[in-house]
């Protein structure tokens, strides 16, 4: 019982750090870079992706015994596209301004490799409960990663966070961070940090292994 | 219909708003397949071709959807048409040039989930391009994608010979190079409209 419980929590937690979709698996880079110029855009995109990930995970997992193997990718894409259309209209209903600033990138959630990847690699092989946990974990991991990039780019590029000014007027903004190349640089910086932390982690593990013969 | 001239549509898609370096579309193949110059050229060709076909398809589907007043079906029908186009190109290539087909490996089927193709279809719809404008737009976007891919491959081939710290190797180095390339492309701003 205990072992099972640990593994279900693990289903959720793995998306946050060990298998983080953006920094470790490097999936779903297009939205991660394209709409992370401000924190609010990044947050919206992350939540929208999480919603699609969750709903398509539920559908794929529930229908996994009915979908023929040969037609599975097409069926997955149809399921994902339906939910993306729903999210597109939802965001338009909540805030037209936000919808405009995200532009076609909401519709492009369809081709986020992360969602199809999870549907194919996880939801189509696992029970409903586990798929929900996996989708939530991956979604939260994706949102957090996007937010990190977005926060760095907004603070440095516009001197604000969620639209609130942080610095006195004398602060010279790094315009390059709001521009496309800033996305590449911010992502590279985080990636280096994550790599370094991972490296330390494996080094520590190795030391423990050596200490206990 | 948009009133932009064909030339400005082309320059805009290929250089000013380069799909990879300004819109971040098609990043996965951009990093995945840009390690060698030759595969990069082939991939650029394949994507350009699929873009052209997808653009024509998207234009006709959009007319159809407008006629029956069902814009909510746009995303789902676009992606299905793109998926079948890619399948078709794949079959053609396997028949006509098996070596190219093998060199492409997994990346050919992955064009389906290449955001650049769907992005192209959606952008041309949003901007209300006419038929010839849509074709020019697709050609420009394809040329821009191929250009970015080839430039990146050239840099990465040289980078292989350079001494890079262990930590930076791989994706991080590729990202930094892409960022610098992207800054370079900002120099084109103001060329198109």
List descriptors.
heterodimer; A: 213 residues; mainly alpha; two-stranded antiparallel sheet; B: 193 residues; 9 helices; globular
Structure at a glance:
The complex is a heterodimer of chains A (213) and B (193). By secondary structure, chain A is an all-alpha fold. Chain A contains 9 helices and 2 strands.
Topology:
The complex is a heterodimer of chains A (213) and B (193).
Chain A: H1 2-13, H2 29-34, H3 39-62, H4 72-94, H5 96-102, H6 113-123, H7 128-158, E1 160-161, E2 164-165, H8 175-178, H9 180-211
Antiparallel strand pairs in A: 1-2
Chain B: H1 6-16, H2 27-32, H3 37-68, H4 74-96, H5 98-104, H6 107-110, H7 115-126, H8 131-159, H9 171-185
What does this structure look like?
The complex is a heterodimer of chains A (213) and B (193). With 213 residues, chain A is an all-alpha fold. Helices cover 70% and strands 2% of the residues of chain A. Chain A has 9 helices and 2 strands. Chain A has helices spanning 2-13, 29-34, 39-62, 72-94, 96-102, 113-123, 128-158, 175-178, 180-211, and strands at residues 160-161, 164-165. In chain A, strands 1-2 form a two-stranded antiparallel ribbon. Chain B has 193 residues and is mainly α. Chain B has one domain. Chain B has 9 helices and no strands. Chain B has helices at residues 6-16, 27-32, 37-68, 74-96, 98-104, 107-110, 115-126, 131-159, 171-185. In chain B, α3 crosses α4 (74-96) and α8 packs across α9 (171-185). The longest helix of chain B has 32 residues, at 37-68. The relative contact order of chain B is 0.22. Classes of the chains: A mainly alpha (213), B mainly alpha (193). The A-B interface holds A 26-27, 29-31, 33-34, 73-74, 77-78, 81-82, 84-85, 88-89, 103-104, 107-108, 110-113, 116, 176, 179-185, 187-188, 191-192, 195-196, 199 and B 21-28, 31, 72, 74-76, 79-80, 83, 110, 112-115, 118-119, 122-123, 126, 167-168, 171-172, 175-176, 178-180, 182-183, 186.
């Amino acid at each position: 019982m205990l072992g099972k419980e640990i593994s279900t929590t693990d289903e959720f937690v793995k998306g946050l750090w060990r298998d983080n979709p953006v920094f470790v698996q490097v999936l779903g880079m297009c939205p991660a870079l394209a709409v992370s110029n401000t924190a609010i855009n990044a947050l919206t995109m992350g939540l929208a992706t999480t919603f699609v990930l969750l709903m398509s995970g539920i559908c794929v997992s529930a229908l996994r015994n009915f979908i023929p193997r040969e037609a599975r990718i097409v069926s997955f894409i149809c399921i994902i596209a339906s939910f993306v259309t729903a999210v597109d209209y939802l965001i338009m209903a909540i805030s037209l301004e936000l919808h405009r600033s995200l532009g076609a990138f909401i519709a492009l959630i369809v081709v986020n490799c992360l969602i199809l990847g999870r549907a194919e690699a996880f939801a189509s092989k696992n029970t409903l409960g586990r798929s929900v946990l996996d989708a939530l974990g991956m979604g939260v991991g994706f949102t957090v990663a996007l937010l990190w990039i977005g926060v760095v780019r907004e603070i440095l590029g516009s001197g604000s966070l969620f639209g609130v000014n942080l610095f006195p007027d004398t602060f010279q903004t790094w315009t390059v961070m709001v521009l496309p190349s800033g996305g590449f640089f911010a992502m590279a910086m985080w990636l280096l940090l994550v790599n370094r932390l991972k490296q330390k982690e494996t080094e520590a593990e190795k030391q423990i292994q050596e200490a206990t013969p | 219909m948009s009133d932009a001239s064909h030339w400005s549509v082309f320059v805009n898609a290929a250089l000013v708003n380069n799909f990879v370096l300004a819109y971040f579309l098609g990043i996965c193949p951009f990093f995945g397949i840009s390690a060698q110059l030759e595969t990069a050229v082939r991939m650029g060709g394949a994507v350009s071709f699929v873009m052209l076909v997808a653009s024509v398809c998207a234009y006709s589907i959009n007319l159809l959807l407008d006629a029956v007043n069902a814009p909510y079906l746009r995303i789902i029908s676009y992606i299905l048409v793109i998926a079948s186009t890619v399948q078709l190109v794949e079959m053609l290539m396997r028949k006509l040039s098996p070596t190219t087909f093998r060199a492409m490996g997994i990346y050919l089927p992955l064009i389906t989930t290449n955001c650049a193709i769907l992005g192209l279809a959606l952008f041309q719809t949003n901007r209300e391009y006419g038929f010839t404008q849509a074709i020019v737009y697709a050609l420009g976007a394809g040329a821009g994608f191929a250009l970015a891919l080839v430039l990146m491959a050239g840099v990465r081939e040289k980078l292989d010979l350079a001494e890079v710290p262990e930590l930076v190797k791989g994706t991080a180095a590729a990202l930094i190079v892409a960022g610098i390339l992207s800054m370079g492309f900002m120099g084109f701003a103001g060329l198109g409209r």
